[in-house]
Hints:
The protein has about 500 residues and is an alpha/beta fold.
Amino acid sequence: MAYVSLYRRFRPDTFQKLYGQEHIVKTLKKQVETGEISHAYLFTGTRGVGKTSAARIFARAINCEHPINGSPCGKCPSCLALKNENNMDVLEIDAASNNGVDEIRDLREKIKYPPVSCKYKVYIIDEVHMLSPAAFNALLKTLEEPPKHAVFILATTEAHKLPATILSRCIRFDFRLVSTEEISEHLAEILKELKRPYEPDALLAIAAFGNGSVRDALSVADLCLSYCDGEITYKGVLDVLGASDLRIVNTLADSILKGDVKSVLVIIDKAVKSGCNVSVLAKDLTTYIRNVMYMKNCGACTDVPSEQLVNIEKSGALADNAKLLRTLEILATLEGSMRNSLQTRLLFETACVKATEAKADISVEGIITRLNALESKVESLSVNGVQISAVSADIASKAQTRPEPRKIWGQIITALSAERMYALSSACSGVRVSFDGDKFVIFAKTQLDYNTLTKEKNSELIKAQLSRFTDCGLMIKKDYQDNVNNIDELKTLADESVVRVEK
């Protein structure tokens, strides 16, 4: 007999075996017990969480002659008939490959005929979002008013792609991601039945890799059963997953949190030379830093192997929440950048150094984060009677509320043009602007622009417009050279890449 994969061999056949979907199981069982069966259901959720399994169980349950706690008994004539794959009363349609209007028209013709041996004829349409617009229109009327013996169960991972007219005709059930603990318990039951010993940490690692999908976790478990001789070990699981060496991840995270740039670069270099996948290392590092933050603030981390807890706790003592948060922000954006880049190592090294060296991060968010961290440490200090925390809070507030100078200048030019001050707005268009402390600085690129802008009437008009956006003062500077004595200097001045001298 051919080998049957774990996710097929241990597919749930009763509601009691459907993990992590208690809110859905309770409702469906109640409908089976009361006989209040709707004509159309929509099961939606991510892959591998039990949508198709629940549809099959429900189809058998509503046809079962003697359901047990809302689940099919598996012994009555209806249950035995439905176990046959060639039965005509429960039909599964793959909408990904049967998405045309002709298939739906054929369904409409066949649905008129009563079931062969059961009470209901059930149509399970998987990946229903793949149907064409014409197919949806053909299905619409039948879905709204099907024969009394017909029940539709639509399953999809992308419910947002379904027309509103379809959604409004179905009872919707949203399947949740299954927790790591529940997947781990399910794996333990399976391995116990298979009589394969295991390490608890190994099951946690497999369950965590599933990311809430039972099917993904069982697929990894299949690999581990083949890879490991006898006991399923944590090290064997890491080998199968291609995960980074935990010692590398630990030391790299500690070096980042300590601010040791040299160690960070040396560790990455050794990891790459030893054959470590940079993308996997980046993902493992992000997960580790997340666990450090969780452990530091909650005092526990349930989905982490026991041997890692001590290292995670030690890492938490090296940095405060502000440092951990900024590190996570930098690493979280890294995966998308690395996916489309040929320089993955360079991107990873840059991100790690940026997280290590606070001075390298000059973004507004980074400045505010460090100001908040500084405020919490020196809130009791004061200089010349001024509370430092109040000063830092005021700086952070201004950094957050001060708009971009180019946006301000664009609105000023628009306002001047609206008032038909074309000469002034034309002079304004050829300058560059920036903030310099509490001054809004205008850099004129030509003598003509400078003369126009510095006229008292014009400068007062600009100040009046500027006051609408900021309380900063106005400063007008030259962004060109006054005395050009030869042809070479003229050529240099005409070049846009020249470094202009302020005067």
